[in-house]
Amino acid sequence: MGQFIDLKSADGSTFPAYVAQPTGTPKGGLVVLQEIFGVNSHIRSVADGYAADGYLVVAPSTFHRVQAGVELGYTEADMGEGFRLKTAVEDLPEPGVMPDIQAAIDHAAQAGKVGIVGYCWGGLLTWRAACGLKGLSAAVPYYGGGMTGEGEATRQPAVPVMAHFGDQDHWIPLETVEAFKKGQPAVTVYVYNANHGFNCDQRGSHDEVAAKQARERTLAFLAEHVG
Length: 227
Prior knowledge:
Structural class: alpha/beta
Helix content: 25-40%
CATH superfamily: Alpha/Beta hydrolase fold, catalytic domain
Oligomer: single chain
Number of strands: 8
Order of helices and strands: EEEHEHHEHEEHEH
CATH topology: Rossmann fold
Radius of gyration: 16 Å
Largest sheet: 6 strands, mixed
Number of domains: 1
Strand content: 15-25%
Distance between the termini: 22 Å
Strand order of the largest sheet: 1-2-4-3-5-6
Mean pLDDT: 97
Low-confidence stretches: none
Number of helices: 6
Shape: globular
């Protein structure tokens, strides 16, 4: 089990991050970026899972600049609140929440090389981090909402990227995923017979087969590039 600590961004802003420690010497560091539901029990369990695989894991609250202490479930009301908060963060003046993610990367770097994994909105932020932040060695966005769209898909990653999508995802049209693959030949893209949120075992869209396969691929990717 991990615990929350406070981190400080370059602009002096402080924010909480859930940190999960591995047993023994870490293989490397890993930043885990939340969905639109906060650093909730699911994201904490994801962090704990990667820590069990040997990584020092840092899961920053990317909502903290607009609202503290967010922990949502997966009801329709929670979905609406999550979208509201995500929109508020996206509307922040540049560089928005990216300095907080950079601070999380910097903290994880005490363990060596650093990878980053994000889900849903966190997948989009992971893609942006791969293209614009420092200190990363690999990035793995899961069904990154918006990353296949105009203005995002043309970004150029500075580190190896593996991206996971579902072919039944009504938030991310499959044709945009195919266009992303063509436009980003260096990115490893996997498409699963699954819906948006297939990795989350607390959502109705959870797909055990897709989640297991994607996690195995992610761990192999991290082993290659992070340690």
